[in-house]
Amino acid sequence: MRPTRLALALALGFPCTQAPAQEAPAKALGMVTINGGQPTSLPTQIPATMEGMDREQIERSINATDSADVLKYFPSLLVRKRYPGDFNHAILSSRASGTGNSARSLVYADGILLSNLLGNGVGGLSFPPRWGLVTPEEIDRVDVMYGPFSAAYPGNSVGAVVDYTTRMPTRLEGHAKLGYSLQPFQLYGTDASYRTWHANASLGSRAGDWSWWLAADRGDAESQPLTFATRLVSTGTPVGAGVPVTGAVPDRNNANQPWYILGASTQYHTVQDHVKAKVAYDFPQQVRASYTLGWWQNSAQGNSASYLRNSAGAPVTSGPISIGGSTFAPVTGADLPLLDESATHWIHGFSVRSRTQGVFDWEATASLYDYARDLKRQTAVTNTLPGAASGGPGTVADGSGTGWSTLALRGTWRPAGMKGPHIVEGGVQQDDYKLSYRTSTITGNWLADPGGALASDVGGRTRLRSLWGQDAWAFAPDWKAVLGARAERWSAYSGFTTITAAPAVNTAWPERTESHLSPKLAVSWQTRSDLVLKAAAGRAVRFPTVAELYGATSTTNSAFINDPNLRPERSWTGELTAEKDVGNGVARATLFYEDTHDALYTQTTFDTVANRNVSRVQNVGRIVTKGIELAWNGADVVWRGLDLQASLTWADSRIKENAGFVTVPGDTIGKRQPNVPELRASGLASWHWSERWTTSVGARYSGTQYRTLDNSDVNGNTYMGVSPFFVVDVRARVQIDKTFSAAFGIDNLNNRTYWNFHPYPQRTYFAEVRADL
């Protein structure tokens, strides 16, 4: 990958501005000028680890069907994306946070929050970032800041902050792209191919002080099966009246126990549409006002298929079954469900910013994300195939009215202009979150009827008000320190949990508030013109989300009610970094450490009051993570035109304290944190053969990891397991003429079958054609 001057500046921890093309970046701690492109909106004054990639690198090197794909080769990052258009499970993980911890990272686009902080992770409710509201075609660049070292962000930044900067035209321009992908998939009893179509068009211009951008995007995707019906071999009995069947696939579960795979389900067909309009106006005195309107709709159907066949060769989709002479529990609608999901979401973003780069700059930003419509329909346990395909009983879950809003005021003061020793920043913020999720039963037609009797109703609100400030102080030649703090007051209110199944629950939870202070400190020393040493430390407080406080993980069992008295996660994070400019690239080594108290995880403990086991989100006393991250980013390596990016991360993440347990007391102590592998690595090599041709090879590796707190899932290479993997991706792109370009690529070239509870995609072929006017 060819590093831009902005990427080099970010890697060395320098501040960034725009400058005329003839200027060169300064090799000194202080001002670094950037030629071309949009500068990142992340706080580049913080001498912490940052990585970036621009539009040209993305287009030439990555098979990207959505904005999550752009992060494939960033150090220590992984998005749990299961198929193109994955709308409910694509969680971002980082150095010390796994793919079940979506609330421990932040994703923005042009300052608009895309992270869904209504909840954490996946399950009955899923909370990935809203990747679909940014398309790869509109990204001008993406930047990542690792760790909670800027006071400008809440404690959810403890893992990483991702910032997408999207395009705004300077002249009339238009773009269109048509893409296609194909995934032949073989697993258990499934042997099929799944395809995806993707079309995108955009138009924008600038006239005087006005600029505008309009983009439309449609994706039509098929996923591989994501879940499977199973029976443990040990549950079979020698007596019973089960129908003798064939087709069950023998396997072992994640605890290495023998089981049968009976069928495949949650095979999605999704159609997603996205329309975005942006308009900006430049006032005198270098003040810009901008407004963004985004509309996203998703229609998804989840299908199931039985592997079982009776003596006549017909599919068996219901009733007791007999396998090899043993009778097993009946096949029901829970084994082979059908799903129908539909959603319409809106996003609004408004900002006014001054951009003088003088003594004082300011900005005001606001955003609103609205679940205008969000329905999930599913067949009932008693409603089985094939009849379920045309109707019958089911449930409908309605999340309409859910959403969040943000408001922030911020100022930057440079007492002596850009060459002064101090750059002082500060601001106030308010973030509001509202969850409303009602599940009702349907006795008639699950596909079309409105909800009937209430099954569960959960919801509530949280609010975070923050005051922050930080001072970047060049206190001596070649030295800079950034000292900051963030004061936060968090409230949770209007919480309620209702479950109608016995024993019924109908509770309105009391309001609660907490206040915390999070100090930040970072220091850098440019020992030579090509070497920078950096140290950073910061406290992060990640408050419980609405769903963690009030959401019920089951609609039929009050043993799965969450805890409204959860304590916030409190983390101290630090890193020591050495970065060296080696002429044709930047080499970096970072030691990192994180000590988290009261981590939020789902686990089972014994409730002495209720005299029963309770499985819900609980506080895990202490998790400690330490490790080292090595990264390299170079251009024209070995020979001209060859760009390389590579990283290697070792992490030891252990549970040190936990008053709760999964099976017996103490069974999680000393075990690895879920979904944080000991080793992970990535690499991307791009060859610029000519002005027309570019090829790239990427590789991604992840070592052994676990999904459970007690690490009992010792077999990762199966359904519900988390497996190691090594996959190779390739891409070739040709610029046909000034207008047209085409690309072909393959992800998972080596066709590795690997898992993160669900199976990841197998070998997938990509083709695209693009026109730029």
UniProtKB/TrEMBL annotation:
PANTHER family: COLICIN I RECEPTOR-RELATED (PTHR30069:SF53), TONB-DEPENDENT OUTER MEMBRANE RECEPTOR (PTHR30069). This is TonB-dependent receptor. GO terms for molecular function: siderophore uptake transmembrane transporter activity. GO terms for cellular component: cell outer membrane. Its main location: membrane. SUPFAM superfamilies: Porins. It is a multi-pass membrane protein. It is found in: Cell outer membrane. Residues 1-21 form the signal peptide. The keyword Membrane applies.
